[in-house]
Amino acid sequence: MTDLLLATRNRGKAREIGAFLGTGGAGLRLLTLDDLGIAEDVEETGSTFAENARLKAGHYSRLSGLDTLGDDSGLEVRALGGRPGVLSARYAGEGAGDDARIARLLAEMAEAADRRARFVSAVCLARAGAELAAFIGTAEGEILRAGRGVNGFGYDPVFLYPPLGRTFAELSLEEKNRVSHRSRALAQVREFIRLGGLR
Ligand code: IMP
Fold first, then answer.
1. What are phi and psi of 171, to 5 degrees?
2. Residue 156 is a catalytic residue
3. DSSP H/E element including 37
4. What topology is assigned to 2-194 in CATH?
């Protein structure tokens, strides 16, 4: 049995990662920071998603002694020059909720005709503080002028995924996991593990 620590406290993300990797790997046991009683946080000081994923994976793999998957993700909006980007979680200030973040995004985009945006997910696998592998996944879409749907988390209600004509919040967990940025990055993780990368 291979143990893998998921270095996230975001329950929406943990649910998606668990649903995705849990189905893929015979012999893979996923643990969370809470399972291990790790309360310490890592400051996300990187200027890219990849840097932050590496910071998290490195830090928690050193702390726990377990192989660790760190991830960082967010939304890049064309009309906003790529913002909120690595600041996606803190876009409406520390402690604000998803509704406040979406409200700020829609307000900033009120005049924007170009609604194109993409979600980006960077994941890094680390052992004893050193990177084993790193992957990126993206999902291209458009920002609506009002939210639709109740599933998912974060910016999902306003992120229209054109190939399906629905927002990410209108997809079931299984449907989102077929097309999302996170699942595209995690598919590469799954393949890496399948080929023996965590041995
Ligand atoms: P992280 O925990 O630093 O990776 O923050 C990612 C933030 O980006 C989340 O808090 C959400 O606001 C946003 N985000 C990332 N992935 C998704 C997604 O799949 N759906 C909606 N919002 C997302």
1. -100, 150
2. no
3. none
4. Maf protein (3.90.950)
Q: Whose CA is nearest to atom 14 of ligand 1?
A: 74
* 76 pocket-lining for ligand 1 (C-beta < 6 Å): no
The pTM of this model reads 0.94
pLDDT (tens, 9 = 90+) of the chain, 199 residues, equals 889 999 988 888 888 888 888 755 567 889 999 999 999 999 999 999 999 999 999 999 999 999 999 999 999 999 999 999 999 999 999 999 999 999 999 999 999 999 999 999 999 999 999 999 999 999 999 999 999 999 999 999 999 999 999 999 999 999 999 999 999 999 999 999 989 999 8
Find the 42 Cα to ligand 1 centroid distance in Å.
16
67 ligand 1 Cβ < 6 A: no
Surface-to-core class of residue 117, CB atoms within 10 Å of its CB (0-12 exposed, 13-18 middle, 19+ buried): buried
